[in-house]
Amino acid sequence: MSKAETKKAPGTFARGLSWALAMVTSLLLTAALAGCVLLYAIHSGSLHEKIASDETLLRMETEWAGGKIRELAEEYGFDPSRTLPVLDREMLIRRNLAGITWVAETVTTGKPKLGPRVDDGEIEEMLSGLLRFPNIKDADEAAQAYGDAVAGITGIIGRATFFFRNDLTDLGLAKAREYADVHGFLNLLLKLPVILGVLAVVLAGLMVLLIASRPKEALKYVGSALGGTGLQAAVCLALLRWLDLPGIVAEGNVRLAEMLRAAGNHLLLPVILGIAALLILWILCLTIYTRRARRAAKEATAKA
Amino acid sequence: MTENVKTKGRGAAWLGILTAGLPGAILLIAGTLLARPYIIKAVGLVLKTVVRR
Prior knowledge:
The complex is a heterodimer of chains A (304) and B (53). Chain A has helices at 3-8, 12-43, 45-52, 55-76, 80-83, 89-109, 121-128, 139-161, 166-179, 182-210, 215-243, 245-250, 254-303. Chain A has 304 residues and is mainly α. Chain A folds into two domains: 3-46 and 192-294, no CATH class; 48-178, no CATH class. In chain A, helix 2 crosses helix 11 (215-243). The longest helix of chain A is centred in the C-terminal third of the chain and has 50 residues, at 254-303. By secondary structure, chain B is mainly alpha-helical.
């Protein structure tokens, strides 16, 4: 072997280290990808709208609130069938969206939000034309019953569309903010996918440097890291499906579980496309690398 | 010779994805299997504390 050829070939150490870096890079990229999906779930307005208007979720909310309003009707003596149109589809969607926005803002800012921004006035307005107490003759009693029933129905609709004890979360956040920089911590956490992505790029650059004498051979390691990320992301997806988080959450609140299920369903396609893109990049890198190797082999044959 | 390199290339592709991805995948699977009971407990605790039925 000539001196020039010896210089060209990457050594065992460089190859070994490159494989190790490929492993670490794929893990970093998988974590970055998972973080990106989470960031997309937090920030994407269109995803929030899709979840808020999920038909199964709306049906579950209508059924649950309808049942509670019927119980309330038995207690106060009003006609539930006249009152149920208050569960207007558009109003439920607006309230779902306000709830999701509350979660997203609380998670990103770490500030107590005093509940979602909803307009209870629209429920009162709708009820003014629907709520009647034919069995109560006394005007004062009827006014009292009307006020109580309106408050009860508003509460039911609030609980049908928003599932968090925001008084507790607000209190917890306010206490936590006294002892720690919650906003700074969340800010760092939300930037983590970008930091991990940059680290992965730095490691990929290191692999190229290690195989500096044959830059195209570095494609083998970079491509493998990308393919490895696709493989790990697919494993993560399968594990999440197996864990069935909505199923676990359903034990606490079935409507929140449905919201999670809807989010998962809407996120599935972008995640699968991301995995496919990584695998395509893997094949592309390896194809370029193989072509180079084939050409080198042909040249060697021609020389011989 | 060309065929040999082709095979070697394909082999390198599969070997590459397995070398780079499999250890992480095994780590993820083992971690999830081990953490599952704790994840269920943690989610249950959060649900009990901050989520209304």
